[in-house]
Design goal:
Layout (H helix, E strand, L loop, with lengths): L3 H27 L18 E7 L6 H8 L9 E7 L5 H14 L4 E5 L6 H10 L6 E4 L10 H5 L8 E10 L6 H23 L11 E4 H6 L10 H11 L3 E12 L5 H28 L4 H12 L3 H20 L3 H30 L11 H10 L1 H13 L22 H4 L6 H21 L6 H20 L22
Parallel strand pairs: 1-2, 1-4, 2-3, 5-7
Antiparallel strand pairs: 4-6, 5-6
């Protein structure tokens, strides 16, 4: 009982988060008439917009970003662009040279460099606000390539004075670069299609994603401005603004392309930062949400949104208890395992695969069955992130602070592109070895299940083996394949003259 009680408690909690994904799908389809497409009105006189480009050591992608921003269709007299550079490497000279080039051509772009990095990205955005001239603030991270009509397709949604922010959907420049980027794209598609749309359509809180969106400056100021006590300053500000009564709009049909991480450690770093930041935001914001006069459904959705990453520590506990529980319960008969364990496992795991399959069906009505190939690996990858994200979640729970760990970008778009991986590559120390060890442990559980003819559990256990081994091996072997060479010369453009 001492072992089985926590085993079932963990399974039930995981199942509740899994079932919540079904709720999001239900909200997505139930409120499909609330999909925002056309703006309620149009500005007769376009307002001034400040475009903020926060960067940190982005020498491979800054040129692509600035080129795209300089192609935005908007009156130049109503536009100003801030390059907010906290870089500590060659990016400083590259970015400053590019800014001077575009400014000489008459484009309203200015360069701002900080040396102390206080507050990281949030601090850079707050610093930029001091000199921003726009009534509205558009923000793009370094790995994004906003389309030319981005501002014209978003700004008119802000004619309603109650709208504080407009978020657009991320798409993926290098979706087809590798198996990893394909899976990452499906993961993000689920978030941007079903999570964002489900929440937006049902009038519950959803968040700005830190980029590819446009804010009303008054909403930022009234909510307390950019704050850097969490690693997800975008979600923190979003909740504070919505608690102040500001309304948000999500435009699923407006796409903004971005570059996906091409290395496993970069992907893990990104996911760990998001996991830690959301738990930090939950600790900071959830008490205010619960005490507010918001409807109960808004509070429940906020809880599931901000605490979703608690599932990672729960997965660790489940990993420890799974084999002992299997041994004990084997002697109680397979039928009991069938009607108790199987529904809980299906709620915990099948909900994930069906959730992402629905998102692919919405985006790609003709080719969505292709996603079936990736679903087992998507589930396995989610399992493989458990060690990294559990550490991040525990650090957030105990209040341990950490620096804003950027996600390296290499301007990798095509399968033939090569990256300067040694420049910004991160290592994860002992984590990959722990992942390989846990994967081996689950390989033993697979052997035990087969030996005892408990075949129904084998597919679930194999997911754990593949997930832990895949993330561990990819972390250890990155950069040792021809697709990840140490040359950036095959795809980067020459730096501007004088840089």
């Amino acid at each position: 009982m001492a072992l089985l009680v926590p085993y079932f408690v963990v399974l039930i909690l995981l199942a509740s988060y899994g079932l919540h994904r079904y709720v999001l799908v239900y909200l997505y389809y139930k409120h499909k008439e609330n999909r925002t497409v056309d703006p309620a009105g149009h500005f007769s006189n376009l307002p001034r917009v400040t475009v903020q480009l926060p960067i940190f050591n982005e020498q491979f992608v800054i040129e692509r970003l600035l080129d795209a921003v300089c192609r935005l269709q908007y009156p130049l007299e109503k536009l100003d662009v801030q390059v907010l550079d906290d870089s500590t490497d060659e990016t400083q000279a590259v970015a400053q040279g590019l800014v001077e080039q575009h400014a000489a051509r008459g484009f309203p772009v200015t360069y701002h460099h900080r040396t102390n990095r206080e507050g990281y990205k949030a601090g850079a955005l707050a610093e930029g606000m001091k000199t921003a001239k726009g009534e509205f603030i558009a923000i793009f991270d370094a790995d994004f390539v906003p389309p030319e009509d981005f501002l014209m397709r978003t700004i008119h949604h802000l004619t309603d004075p109650k709208i504080g922010m407009v978020q657009t959907r991320w798409t993926h420049i290098n979706r087809n670069y590798s198996f990893l980027t394909e899976v990452e794209a499906i993961l993000l598609d689920g978030h941007f299609v079903l999570e964002h749309s489900g929440r937006a359509r049902s009038n519950t809180f959803f968040n700005f994603n830190g980029t590819a969106g446009i804010w009303r400056r008054n909403a930022i100021d009234e909510a307390g401005g950019w704050q850097h006590d969490t690693l997800t300053e975008d979600t923190d500000l979003s909740y504070r603004a919505q608690l102040k009564g500001w309304k948000f709009i999500y435009l699923q049909d407006v796409e903004c392309p971005a570059e996906l991480p091409v290395e496993m450690t970069a992907f893990k770093t990104q996911q760990a930062r998001w996991a830690k930041g959301l738990i930090q935001t939950a600790k900071k914001i959830l008490p205010s949400v619960i005490k507010s006069d918001q409807p109960f459904r808004v509070k429940v959705e906020a809880w599931y949104h901000l605490t979703a990453n608690l599932s990672y520590p729960l997965m660790v506990v489940l990993s420890v208890l799974l084999l002992p529980a299997m041994i004990i319960r084997f002697y109680q008969g397979w039928f009991q395992m069938l009607y108790i364990d199987l529904p809980l496992f299906l709620a915990s795991t099948f909900s994930i695969s069906s959730f992402y399959l629905v998102s692919q069906r919405e985006l790609f009505p003709k080719s969505w069955p292709r996603a079936l190939l990736y679903l087992p690996f998507l589930m396995a990858l989610g399992i493989g992130l458990t060690v990294t994200n559990t550490r991040a979640v525990l650090e957030a729970l105990i209040g341990k602070k950490s620096a804003f760990a950027r996600t390296p970008k290499y301007r990798v778009e095509l399968k033939t592109d090569r990256i300067n991986a040694s420049k910004y590559r991160r290592r994860l120390g002992w984590v990959p070895w722990v992942e390989l060890l846990i994967g081996s442990y689950f390989a033993l559980t697979v052997y035990y299940a087969i030996a005892n003819e408990n075949y129904i559990t084998v597919p679930f256990l194999v997911l754990f083996v593949v997930g832990y081994w895949y993330t561990g091996l990819m972390s250890l072997l990155q950069g040792r394949f021809s697709g990840l060479s140490l040359s950036a010369e095959t795809h980067t453009k020459p730096f501007p003259v004088g840089v």
